[in-house]
Design brief:
The protein has a 6-stranded parallel β-sheet with strand order 10-9-8-11-12-13, with helices on both faces. It has a 4-stranded parallel β-sheet with strand order 2-1-3-4, with helices on both faces. A 3-stranded parallel β-sheet has the order 6-5-7. The chain has 15 helices and 13 strands.
Length: 431
């Protein structure tokens, strides 16, 4: 029987346009209003992204209600595509000013507005003169000007260049750079917890989560920490360097507490920045003890069971070392690793080298691997498998953060092994 997997599409660029990126970089900044100059469906796309993010945060135990800033569409119609829609934009600006009384307005253009040549820059200039508040045009023209990350990072850079001011740095004040599901997401909650162990507090998470009136004060941060994962494009690092060069706000650098081994690297980098190396090692020792304590409570169920790893993501997105380490921590036997057909030959070569560096683990192709997977007690897989009765645990696209994330992944493996019988199905890691 042929192995049937659920494919995951991965791209080097996102599948959303610039206007959504602009909105996302401002979405939780009180005092701001974003006008999308385009068809109303464009605003729907942006608001749907917010809804999905809210559900994810709720699943991670965060707050259910996160109030976003007003997102207003100029609602270009078919006839506006022929005769021009600048009057619609002018009316929309008047409506926003009368209804929301904003402190700052951002106008971003859609593909349609770009094609018909509506001059949002001139309209923004006139509105700023009339109303006496900043009105910032972002004339990306939807996909014509790039994709999501272009809108996100260029808006962030515009905020810094126009609104930030030199400030005296306040010791111990930390600035987080990036989103990662916002302040209520698992990533940020865990980063804040780890920072608190050094006596540090997070003042702001930028962009997207700072009130407009506080933007000018952000350069008072002692240093910045990037939120992200290894292998991501370097857009946020560019922002960190801009803050460092312009406002003397140093950054922790391109290191992320994603997966336990990288969490240890992150703690050590932070300890070096703070000149508290001994304290950093003590924290690592205590956090590792927490993980070991949790793992020991799972051993009565996990010890001696048989695990298989299924890999269908290339090394840009997945490295097996952390998964193998979790298998060893739970005293499971790793009977093999199965390469799925959607891996390229270069992917397989890199993964073989990474696996060989860890230990002598059998590697199977998808045809050989079917029987191996069917016989295992737990299948840790990057892709959902249709035709197997093995208990499957879907390996997160992005490993969870820090100690809490490591314990959550171990707990998910334990709970799956507690299930009675082998009836297939897929389980997911939750905090």
């Amino acid at each position: 029987m042929a192995l049937k997997t659920k494919w995951l599409l991965s791209k080097s660029k996102s599948c959303s346009c610039t206007l959504v990126g602009v909105y996302r970089s401002l979405a939780f900044c009180p005092g701001v209003v974003v006008i999308l100059h385009g068809p109303i469906g464009c605003a729907h796309v942006a608001s749907t992204m917010d809804l999905g993010a809210s559900f994810r945060v709720m699943a991670d135990g965060g707050k259910e209600n996160r109030e976003t800033i007003p997102l207003v569409s100029s609602h270009l119609r078919e006839k506006d595509g022929i005769f021009g829609g600048i009057d619609r934009l002018s009316d929309c600006i008047s409506y926003v000013m009368d209804t929301y009384h904003p402190k700052c307005v951002w106008i971003v253009s859609s593909c349609v507005a770009g094609v018909i040549g509506d001059d949002i820059e001139q309209e923004a200039k006139a509105a700023e003169a009339s109303y006496g508040i900043p009105v910032i045009p972002m004339p990306f023209a939807g996909f014509l000007g790039g994709e999501y990350s272009d809108g996100y990072y260029q808006t962030t850079e515009m905020m810094i260049r126009r609104f930030f001011r030199k400030q005296k740095h306040i010791k111990g004040r930390v600035l987080l750079l990036g989103d990662q599901m916002g302040p209520e997401g698992q990533y940020v909650r865990e980063v804040k917890r780890l920072l608190s162990r050094f006596g540090l507090t997070v003042k702001w998470q930028f962009p997207g989560h700072v009130p407009f009136e506080a933007w000018k004060d952000i350069p008072s941060a002692d240093f910045s920490i990037l939120l992200g994962t290894v292998g991501q494009p370097g857009g946020m690092m560019k922002i960190a360097r801009l803050l460092e060069d312009t406002y003397d706000v140093p950054t922790l650098g391109d290191v992320y507490p994603v997966g336990w081994e990288r969490t240890k690297d992150w703690i050590r980098a932070l300890a070096d920045l703070l000149h508290e190396k001994e304290r950093g090692e003590a924290i690592i020792k205590e956090e590792e003890a927490r993980i070991d304590h949790a793992a020991s409570s799972f051993l009565p169920v996990t010890e001696g069971k048989n695990a298989v790893i299924g890999i269908g993501r290339g090394p840009r997105w997945y490295h097996p070392q952390e998964t193998i380490a979790r298998i060893e921590r739970l005293h499971l036997a790793c009977s093999g690793i199965v390469f799925f057909d959607n891996l390229t030959e270069d992917d397989k070569k890199t993964l073989r080298e990474e696996i060989a560096a860890v230990g002598d683990i059998p590697i199977y192709d998808s045809r050989e691997g079917q029987a191996v997977m069917d016989a295992c007690d737990i299948l840790l897989t990057t892709n959902e498998i249709y035709n197997t009765k093995a208990r499957q645990l879907f390996i997160p696209m992005v490993p969870l953060t820090g100690t809490e994330g490591e314990i959550a992944e171990l707990r998910a493996m334990y709970r799956l092994l507690c299930r009675y019988g082998k009836k297939g199905g897929v389980a997911y890691v939750t905090v």
